[in-house]
Structures are given as structure tokens and as C-alpha cells.
Structures
1.
Amino acid sequence: MSAWTRKDLLTIRELDRNEIELILQTGRTFKELLSRPGRKSNSLEGRTVVNLFVEPSTRTRTSFELAARRLGADVVSIDSESSSFRKGETLKDTGLVLQAMHADFVILRHSAAGAPGFLAERLKAHLVNAGDGAHEHPTQALLDVFTIQERLGEKRDWKDLHVVICGDILFSRVARSNVWALTKLGARVTLVGPTTLVPELFSELGVTVAHDFDSVLLDADVIMLLRIQHERQRRSFFPSVGEYVSLFGLNLDRFKRCKPGVLIMHPGPINRGVEIASELADCPNSTVLDQVQNGLAVRMAVLHLLGGRENPASP
Ligand code: CP
């Protein structure tokens, strides 16, 4: 497997299969390290990681912060409400301020697609995209494929897997990053949802586009449900929440018709009773909390590969 050469992690689209596999393999090393009581790595000792979150987050922000601490870094977290963004300071000027303070890594979540790339071109620090508008959320897709592989077994060939992603695809950065990750690994992907939220154009990404959830879920090995991203929609894309739930919600009746070992995934936050019935979010087939847990190991892997010491996880 080749060595990591990139300064930044901006998209899954730009990665090749070897790079994705390298992150997964490194993530497994860190997951093993985390299972040992009190074990930490010194990979980022003496380095400064800044979490710059200009959009809300619970999972991504917390796990990047924990990941950086577990790697021995100094960590600072900034959000839009309590920073000089509120006074009109630009993203570029904020980045230059962080550079003047010798930030080695900037983890950026922003509502504008391309914001992490914009900053990556202007700063010496390693930039990590923690979600940019409806564009990409690369570490979410990496922890998702890590979780699929962990649950179904490393020996299971990606070519034999059918992953159905259901819901608001149009506004979902998680869907885009997962489509890139899953298709590069070789999985078969179906995107399903209302015609307004799953345009035919997506088939150009090498996936199947469908609008009848019942007809595609029978053959699914993995069903990934997505939240309706109201914060990015300026109008309504379906007649009512009730109609959406009846056509695209994963309920017990639909679950009973799925393959017995089907994985139920959701990046969170969940709208219980809308895209997923509450009891299914908590059932043994659900990977919702595995995904959260694996986010820590995968984000440690990403930070380490981008700029860590050579051999950090050895006991
Ligand atoms: N999945 C995800 O990105 O969740 P947060 O918005 O809580 O970080």
C-alpha cells in the first residue's frame, strides 16, 4: 500500500482506492489502540489543531477534538457565534489569524461548498473538510465505509454489496461523499427518494437512481437513511412530512421485508419517526452508534496521515 502524500483532506472524489484503503487500515490500528485502557498516541505532540465550525455539529466537532487530544495535540475549538465572524471577519482573514498563531491543522465546517479548499490554498496548515455545504463530508463517508467493513467483515468483497441511500440526496454532502467512497471501493449503490430530491443527473456518478423505496430495499445489504436538510432548502420538496414518511420512511413493515442481516445506517442527527422508526434506530441491525464510535478512530487516522509522526500507534 502506498504512503500518504496529501497536505489536506478536502474530498473523497479526489482520493483513489489505495488512499481510502490506507485510511481504513490506519483507522483499524487506532481503533485497536483505543481499546487499550488509557492508551494514547504521541503522533501530534507539540502540534496545534484548530476546530473551526461555522455550522452546528455535535458528532464531527467532538470526535475531531477527541481525536486530536488522543494524538497528543493542543486543541482549540472556535464556533461562529462566539468568534469574530459575528463582527464580519472573513474566512480568509480568520485563517490568516490562525496561521499567525501557528495552527498546524484547521478542521473546517462551513455552509459554503468549497470553503475548505479556498482556505487550503492560502494556509500552510493541513486543512480537513468537516462538511462544506451540500458538497462533501469526507470523514463521514470514511467512518461509514469503516463501519460497513467492520460489521460485515473485511473478507466480504465490496463488489458483492448493494448499498441503498434513501432520502434527501440533493442537499446531502454525506450522500455525495459516500457515493464516491462506495463506488471507488466497488460497491453497487442505489439512491432513492422523491424525484425532487433525487434527480436523474446523479446516475452520471455511476449509481442507480430510483424513486420507489419498496422495490429497492429487498435487495439491499446496507440501507443508509438521510435527514431532510431543511437548513439548505429554500422551498418544500415534497407535499407533507406524512407523505414522505409513508413513501420513504424505514418502518417495521419495510424492515421485515429486508434481508435478515441488513445494516441500518444513519449519519445523524436522526429525526425519529420521519426517515427512520425509532425502534429501528435502536435495533441490533442499526449501526448508528458504531458510526459515532468509529468516527474517533477514523479521524485519528486522517490527522495522523496528514501530519503525524511516523510510528505513533506502536505500543
Ligand atoms: N453526521 C454529522 O456530521 O453530525 P454532526 O452534524 O453532529 O457533526
2.
Amino acid sequence: MKLQSVRIHHVKMPMKFTFTTSFGSMNEKEFLLIEATDEDGTVGYGECVAFVAPWYTEETVKTCWHMLEDFLIPMLIGKTLQHPDEVSELFSSIRMNNMAKAAIEGAMWDIYCQQTKQSLSHALGGTRTAIDVGIAIGLQPTKEALLTAIAQALAKGYARIKVKIKPGADVDIIHTIREVYPDIPLMADANAAYTLEDTALLQQLDRYNLLMIEQPLAYDDIVEHATLQRALSTPICLDESIHSLADVKRAISLGSCKIINVKIGRVGGLTEARNIHDYCAMHNVAIWCGGMLEAGIGRAHNVALTSLPQFTLPGDTSGSSHYWQEDIISPQVEMIDGQIKVPQTVGIGYELNDKVLQKYIVSTRNYT
Ligand code: OSB
Ligand code: MG
């Protein structure tokens, strides 16, 4: 393949709910949609998952746009590649900016799959034909609202419930949930809101049989999580701390976590995500696919990735209708009885719905 031109669509989509974490709230998703055209006319799409503000990682919509426009797209246009794995190799001279890299890398995987007439799931080594789906429920204004949200999620068949916690809204919240639902698969995500000084408090969570606690300590820490993991029986799952296979190796060798949340954007693309999968499969480390409140293109990529065998835990990969009135793909990603079917057709298995996309496009820029 040889990339000929790229269009970046700047998109804003209203969400169906307000999503609140220890950092703040979101009720719309602003993102970049990458439309890449190969010299043979094949068009591939990638979604940049970065948010408007750098509260989750350092990247933003604007920093990604800058990286894509000034570095990544110029590096890729006109280069002949045999396989999309070569994209991350090519980008290795650029430090970090993983969500920007993943956005265009994902589009190249899409082009490759169409040209070689295979599904993205198959090209990545996927084996599952359906994936288990969990839900991430943000911080709620009241305990009643939280219990209602959980009841609704269970009624829809979600295979796992994740709730956000923060200092002041943690043990108490989990205690309340466990009083009503002693046995549901439950986990808590702290989004880096605690320090080692909170060890005794976090130990109180051990009695609630949580599947895991996600990213309790600092976003850039791997060392202190190892200290915390030794003090907890609840498995720690790392999210924000993991940007590469090298980070995964460090975390596993230090004992910083027992589970890894893999996000394609955070680790710089599908190739690195697959490499992390392969390493974790070899070392018997459980992994699952995280979410960034993606629209349809990013969601389709998450579904394909989750079809790989070591994704043994349900991911944050809800169906389109959980987030959007109308997603930008057709068909929509649909969850039925806690599962999403993995498309086996050529490419990502969903078509971009241009009519819907047009409603949400703010601007478009062309690069040749
Ligand atoms: O910490 O996993 C996280 C959403 C935005 C930013 C960070 C996180 C999340 C989620 C997943 O919890 C939400 C989803 O995509 O359903
Ligand atoms: Mg998280």
C-alpha cells in the first residue's frame, strides 16, 4: 500500500449522558476522524480518541491534529508499505503522541484489510466470533441514581459493571452496591485519584470481592502500584500507566498489576495493542479492551481487537446506542444479551454513514 492523501474531519457528537470521572464531566465527544486514501483508491478510516482537554493523558484533539498535520501524515504519504506493522516502526522516531499515531495507523490497517480481502479481526489474529461487553458507569449525583444505572445495565445484559470511584466516594459506594448485588461481576476505576497514603482505605475494598481496581495511583506510576498490589488482595489493573509493550513488561516484572487495560489509542495503535496481547498471552496476564467513549470507527476497531483470544475479560465496549442517538456507521455496533458479534466481512465490517457524519462535522482539511 501507498498512502496518497488524507482528510481530517473535525467532528463533535452530543452524548446521550454526562460521563463523570474523578477529573470532571463530558457530555459531548469532539474528535478527529481520519480518512486515508491509498494510491489504488482504497479508503480507510481511523478515529483519534484524544479528548479536548489533557485530563486522561497529555494528548488533546489539538495536539493530535498538530502531530498528524506536521509530522505523521507527511512521514506516511508516498511511502510504500507491505504491512501496517511498518507504520509504528516508521513512527518510532517520534516520541509518544500515541493517540495521534494510532488514528492514522488504524486507517492504514483498514486499507490493508480491504486490499487483502480479510476482516480486521482476522488480520489481527482474532479468534472470537462474539465478545463479552461490560459497562463503565460514571460517578453519579446520588447513590439512588447509581443503583438505578446499575439496575438498567444489568437488565440490558452487561457482563460486568465498572463504577468510577474517587476520594470521598469509594468504600461507601461499593458497600452500597454489594448490599444490593452481592455477586455481580463488579470493578472500580479510580482514574489515578489516590496515593500510597490511602493504602489502608483501599484495603477496605478487599472485602467486596471486586474483579479488580483500575489505576488507583498516579497516571505515570508503575513502581508504587507494585507496593500497593503487595498490600491488596484485589487485583490491580493498570490503565493510564501503560503506553507500550515496554511498560507492560515493566509492570509485570515489578508486580505492579495483575490485569492490563489495553486501549488502542493509548498504546499507539493496533500493532502495539496486538503485541501487548501476544506478550500477555504468553505470560498468562489477563487483559481487556478499554474505551474512550468512541464513535463508530474507533468502536469497530475495539471490537476487532477484543476478538483476540487473551481478551478474556469483558471490555468497556458498549454498543453504539449506549452513547449516541445515531452513530456514524451502519449498521450500528449492537450489543445483544451482553455480547457484540465480531464482523467477519472484509475490513472493519461497518460502513461509514456519511449522512449522519455530515450532521456532526465541524470542518475538514485535506492533505496530499
Ligand atoms: O478510565 O477507562 C477510563 C472513559 C474516558 C476516559 C477514561 C476512561 C473511560 C472509561 C470508559 O471508563 C468509558 C467507555 O468508553 O465506555
Ligand atoms: Mg480507566
